[in-house]
């Protein structure tokens, strides 16, 4: 057993020296995620507010102005201009200056006074689906509300009163949604890149070839290389959690120790991906390109930005093969929902299985493609 | 125990009918040779002829397709792990860690071979003494010149006191003085009973080896001491002599010499031409013929074949055999 891991200590010693000597790379790889955190945490807000709106009010009497006031007060619409004809209304949307155009016809007030249905035209720019969805929902809701008030004459309460309550992220803060997911993506990013680079660099230099003629065993070599980057991954996790908690004020409801424990199999999976990449790439530039391969599906199919429910049915099973899927559920679970091991053990188990599988595949491929080449 | 020279356990390397195939391509084709202990064995051949593949097979990195090999008395097919403990290997282009200091590189390789701290300390002192690395211990190896890098690499490869060292093109790309110094070091170590397996493209280095073999398209086409190779019938066929023609007009002389009947081959060497010719051709006549054609001749004298001549002749002969086989 000891023989299988022969050389771990020596390789670990050397790898730590490399990392220390190349402090620039380390600093860069640790601060990049923080930079992304600041971008996503401060600059991006997924809540849609103040959509630029253009209005053509052909009626322009009290009823029509009341309707417009209600739309404006919803915080969803921001009226940037009033126009006097259909043509200008269309133009503003085509030019991209406004995303929503509202036209109130000449007979709006008259029809309401005669208890007839009054129509309001809402033109919505469909090129951004989330903005369009929000505009449709809010205008529909206001229309319905307006109609009910006219029918009920303010005298009765609604028969059914829906009271939605947002759990875990009551203020719908974007950092709360983004940052736990970002943690998973960043850990993957940093550890995969660093491992792949450290091996490919030795391939380029020819030092790897030299090592194979020594008594170092493949597992010893790989483990000695992985351990320092595992340490860096853990440090990175601490850093991200610290900033998340104290700069972005995302409350951590669950057990941090559990989060660290469950990040272990995830990091192993990420490091194994790094080895896989290094077994394919023959130069650092090639490794750089290949390292994006696992990143893209991890961003798009893991539920990090887009809910997994939106993935097409054919690709859905793919999301089960992505380690980030499980780890994002774990980070969001522990940080936002206060979940414990009894809620997350399946994710933890899945990560262990994936991590072991990847490590075995990587070690085998490394043996066949790199050592025996 | 009585030892016969044919006992494979006595040799440092004993390769018997080594074959290595990659798919349909046979990189090493029935290669056999023997390296005695304490020899400096020069393994020569053009690029892509199978030198590195043979080294990989002998060090247990590549399984043999067929054949057998014993290194330091151990079967590489069975005991490749133990083989790696007993040999040292230094690859071409100084495979050192450039961002580590000289001392750290030595430390690392010492740990790789699991030397205990006391022995490692003693070995580092010995090697530093032998290779003269003392002034550079705390310098990054990237900052060393080519010759010093090679000395460090050699030091790393012999920390664990191997009896056999593989040096893959150890002097590629270093200056002549450093090359000479490295060879002096090899001779000194060889004097201590260490066996060297050296690949090189430099003929002057091949001449320094006590035993050379030449591999061509996966087959060994020459094997022996440099002197025995010079006397091979293929190199010096019966009834031929080798001469050196010194002339200021080498290119013109070469063109002309190749047309003279009786001259079998001719090549330029600096300010002279080396020619292999039938011995009935008179040196005096040759001189006259050249002079008559307006080619000034300083000197014509008989010449022993150099190793380069040997390999060129053998390569040509095997090239012809290969082409005949393909036709």
Question: What would you note in describing this structure?
Answer:
The complex is a heterodimer of chains A (about 375) and B (about 325). The mean pLDDT of chain A is about 85. Chain A is about 65% helix and about 5% strand. In chain A, α3 links the parallel β1 and β2. Chain A is built from 14 helices and 4 strands. The two termini of chain A are about 25 Å apart. In chain A, strands 2-1-3-4 form a 4-stranded mixed β-sheet, with helices on both faces. By secondary structure, chain A is mainly alpha-helical. With about 325 residues, chain B is an alpha/beta fold. Chain B folds into 2 domains: about 10-225, P-loop containing nucleotide triphosphate hydrolases (Rossmann fold), CATH 3.40.50; about 235-305, Alpha-Beta Plaits, CATH 3.30.70. In chain B, α3 (about 100-110) runs parallel beside α5. The longest helix of chain B has 20 residues, at about 305-325. Chain B is globular. Chain B starts with 12 loop residues before the first strand and ends with a helix. Classes of the chains: A mainly alpha (about 375), B alpha/beta (about 325). The interface between A and B is medium-sized, with 25 and 28 residues.
Rg on CA atoms of chain B, Å: 23 Å
Q: Which stretches of chain B of 5+ consecutive residues score pLDDT under 50?
A: none
What order do the strands of the largest sheet of chain A run in, or round the barrel if closed?
Answer: 2-1-3-4
Number of helices of chain B: 11
Number of distinct beta strands of chain B: 14
CATH class label of the largest domain in chain B: Alpha Beta
Our count of domains of chain B comes out at 2
- End-to-end distance of chain B, in Å? 53 Å
- Strand/helix succession of chain B: EEEHEEHEHHHEHEHEEHEHEEHEH
